[in-house]
Write a structure and sequence with these properties.
Elements (H helix, E strand, L loop, with lengths): L3 E5 L4 H11 L3 E4 L5 H6 L6 E6 L9 E4 L2 E5 L4 H6 L1 H6 L1 H7 L5 H6 L2 H6 L6 H8 L3 E6 L2 E6 L4 E3 L2 E2 L7 E8 L5 E9 L7 E11 L5 E10 L9 H7 L2 E2 L2 H14 L11 H25 L10
Parallel strand pairs: 1-3, 2-3
Antiparallel strand pairs: 4-5, 5-10, 6-7, 6-10, 8-9, 11-12, 12-13, 13-14
């Protein structure tokens, strides 16, 4: 079975864009191909006359620091994210989420951009990028744009970025500084298809006393049709010294306000509500501890 007619390997963003324009919607961007090629083989995607491989474009395949910001190319693999000392120390939840995607072979080729571009609300890397309040740089209608990560998502599997015409180029992430920390925890099915039941990414920023949570960002997915912040839970944490009772209140609000749907592939809605509590009790204290101590060693990576 022939999966494509032409396979291009451009070396610049402009070259990739020109190839997409030349094929007028009949080409498709490919990174690691771990989802796309399987979809083509199984008939969930049509045969494409051309594929445009973006993994050899330098600015899309690198991790670089720009002051207190880290720039992660959309073609960076999950293994590259996990191996980054900078991300491990100062964007820890992203390393933890990328470190549990698939197995080593998948992580070696699957890209962070592909994780986001598929626009699935359960995507692990996406969950952490939302909690980190990342921005995405895209090329759309011939213009580069930089916008909040959450603006990319239009619905399950529906993205602002059209892979037949547009490019997702890179992500901009503010690095955690003193008094800031993050964590990611996931619960998944142990048998069969490795689908996450729920994932939870948490970022917190502490006040001058090192105990009060001044800012908090949480993303628990999949809850709705697009990745979203759990703002009602964040509100319970903000402005309070972290304690067991504050965590109890956050859990209570989460159980009342968050409404995951039943999924025949994941779990019942009732079970997933119970798992929200489990995840919050694991991730929030860990993010707080990292913010307070300044020490962060990613957990569960590669397991």
């Amino acid at each position: 079975m022939q999966l494509w007619d032409r396979y291009y390997i451009p070396h610049t963003v402009d070259e990739a864009s020109e190839l997409l324009a030349h094929h007028a919607g009949q080409a498709r961007v490919v990174g690691g191909g771990t989802d796309l090629l399987l979809d083509i083989k199984t008939g969930h995607q049509p045969h494409f006359p051309a594929l445009v491989d973006i993994t050899h474009i330098p600015e899309m395949a690198q991790i670089s620091q720009d002051g207190e910001t880290v720039v992660v190319g959309a073609g960076v693999t999950h293994s590259q994210v996990v191996a980054s000392e900078l991300l491990s120390a100062r964007a820890t939840c992203l390393v933890e989420s990328c470190g549990v995607v698939g197995g080593p072979q998948v992580r070696n080729v699957a890209t962070l951009g592909g994780n986001v571009a598929h626009a699935l609300p359960a995507a692990d890397g996406t969950t952490s990028l939302v909690a980190l309040d990342a921005e995405a740089e895209i090329l759309k209608d011939g213009q580069r744009r930089r916008l909040p990560i959450r603006e990319l998502f239009r619905g399950p599997g529906q993205s602002l970025v059209d892979p037949a015409h547009d490019l997702l180029i890179k992500f901009w992430i503010n690095l955690s500084g003193p008094g800031q920390g993050s964590a990611f925890k996931r619960i998944m099915r142990p048998q069969g298809v490795a689908l996450p039941i729920l994932g939870c990414a948490v970022w917190v920023g502490l006040g001058a006393d090192g105990e009060t949570i001044d800012e908090a960002r949480l993303c628990i997915s999949p809850i709705g049709p697009v990745p979203a912040r759990a703002e009602s839970v964040e509100a319970v944490l903000k402005g309070r010294k972290f304690s067991g009772s504050v965590l109890d209140n956050a859990v209570e609000v989460a159980r009342r306000e968050l409404h995951p749907r039943i999924s025949k592939y994941r779990a019942t809605a009732e079970y997933r509500v119970e798992m929200i509590e489990v995840l919050l009790r694991r991730a929030v204290p860990l993010a707080f501890q990292r913010a307070r101590t300044g020490e962060a060693t990613p957990e569960g990576v590669g397991m």
